[in-house]
Design brief:
Layout lengths: L1 H30 L15 H17 L5 H23 L6 H29 L6 H23 L1 H48 L1
Helix pairs in contact: 1-2, 1-3, 1-4, 1-5, 1-6, 3-4, 4-6, 5-6
Length: 205
């Protein structure tokens, strides 16, 4: 049960950050016999699934490093990462009781949503800065976190679950602050643009 919980939490959390990379890495690990997945996740080691996930992971790798476009990418994937995290979390429990699978899906979607919103909020704040290097640093950090997190979830489940408890506590603390920061940043940008337009109009008069 600990292994199943860790697998579900790992897949849903990582999906909130990098869905395609998550499916690719876990699928490859299963195909190479490094890990054993429950029958309900057996499709992840399909050659077609691995190939498509790998291709999309490359696309996301590039899209996530383009300032402003990464926030658009995140906005679109709000409707993809969270449901996928819920499905993967439910699948990690195998053929369990339907009520338990429903609970797993709800918790998995919540965990994926927390990771996704934390990532998206952080990126929105970073995009308020004009320099591009912070996007590359943030993207590379997320890639490393996903790889390290999945490794812990698969091979050191207790440590991973403890870290996830810490992440949930951090997300509860950080998300309201990120939201206020993003709102303040965009309001400041809007006020600056209005001021600039007003000054240009005044010069013309």
């Amino acid at each position: 049960m600990i292994d199943a919980l860790s697998l579900g939490a790992g897949l849903s959390w990582a999906s909130g950050l990098r869905l395609y990379l998550t499916v690719f890495l876990v699928g490859m690990a299963a195909r190479l016999g490094i890990v054993h997945l429950p029958d309900t996740l057996a499709t992840l080691d399909s050659g077609w699934v691995i190939a498509v996930a790998g291709g999309l992971a490359v696309v996301e790798f590039m899209a996530d490093r383009i300032p402003a476009f990464d926030s658009l990418w995140d906005a679109i994937h709000t409707f993809i990462r969270i449901p996928a995290g819920a499905l993967l979390a439910a699948g990690s429990l195998g053929h369990a009781d339907p009520a338990l699978l429903t609970i797993a899906a709800l918790l998995g979607g919540t965990l994926a949503g927390s990771a996704h919103l934390t990532k998206a909020g952080t990126r929105a704040l970073i995009n308020l800065s004009p320099e591009p290097f912070s996007n590359w640093i943030a993207s590379s950090t997320e890639d490393v976190l996903v790889c390290a997190g999945l490794a812990l979830a698969l091979f050191v489940p207790i440590v991973f679950l403890l870290l996830m408890a810490g992440f949930v506590a951090f997300a509860i603390w950080a998300l309201p602050r990120l939201w206020r920061g993003v709102q303040g940043g965009f309001k400041g940008m809007a006020a600056h643009m209005v001021s600039r337009l007003g000054s240009i109009g005044g010069k013309r008069d």
